[in-house]
Amino acid sequence: MTSARIVSDAFFFDFNHATCDGVKNTATRSVFFSFAAAIDYLEADIVHWMRIGVIADTHGLLRPEAVETLRGVDAIVHAGDVGGAHVLEGLRELAPLTYVEGNNDDGEGTDIVRVTIGGLRILLTHILPRPHKPDRRVVDSLRASPAEIVIFGHSHLPHDEIIDGIRYFNPASAGPRRFDYPVSVGIIDDGRAMHVALDERSKAALVKRMNQLKS
What are the pLDDT digits (tens) for 15-29? Predict the structure, then answer.
């Protein structure tokens, strides 16, 4: 099965913003972004783009479609509610793995893990809960040590938004389907972020449910 890629930026549903000429796919129009606004203070030779797989809320299910989508990435980050060591082991077979525990793992979902991949500084947590109202522990962590991107899970809702120069990204759930939410993973590659639908039903669900955590 060929997964559908949705490339999004902070203004994904506002097509008045610049789009990449001539780039289309079966899921929706593609909008390109750059992390330049968030990392313009870094020297150019510090950041080396790497292909990063982003997954969350597997709840014990490592779908074959997720494995195939993540195959070939340089690194993987899991934003919690893993659901078992077998999921971690399966992901480690694909690439080096960084993960945070969710509230359905052994933790409370409030841990923060920091990692730098290819010069990209990542804050990883399970419960944010919302990009416009992050928990105090996240705010304090970012003040103490900046990051270009905050990756989170828990809601099972896809999100991709830049706030005050920081990208907030939720890949949505790659585990058992909840309601009409999408089943998807994320890819960060060469200055672009993608939500990748893992089945046909999730293509429309990604469009419908994108960035609903703004409210």
Answer: 222 223 233 332 322
Query: Over the stretch 114-162, which tens digit does the pLDDT of each residue have?
Result: 999 999 999 999 999 999 999 999 999 999 999 999 999 999 999 999 9
Q: At 124, which amino acid appears? A: L
DSSP result, 84-143: SHHHHHHHHTTS-EEE---TTTTS-S--EEEEEETTEEEEEES--EETTEE-HHHHHHHH
Name the residue type at position 70. L
Is 35 within 8 Å of 191 (Cβ atoms)? Answer: yes
Positive or negative, the CA dihedral 189, 70, 76, 102 is positive
Angle at 63 between CA 5 and CA 131, to 5 degrees: 55
Cα atoms in the Cβ-side hemisphere of radius 13 Å centred on 8: 31
Residue 7's DSSP bridge partners are: 194
Q: How many CB atoms lie within 10 A of CB 160?
A: 26
CB of 140 within 8 A of CB of 95?
Answer: no
Token pair in block for residue 38: 């968030």
Q: pTM for this one?
A: 0.81
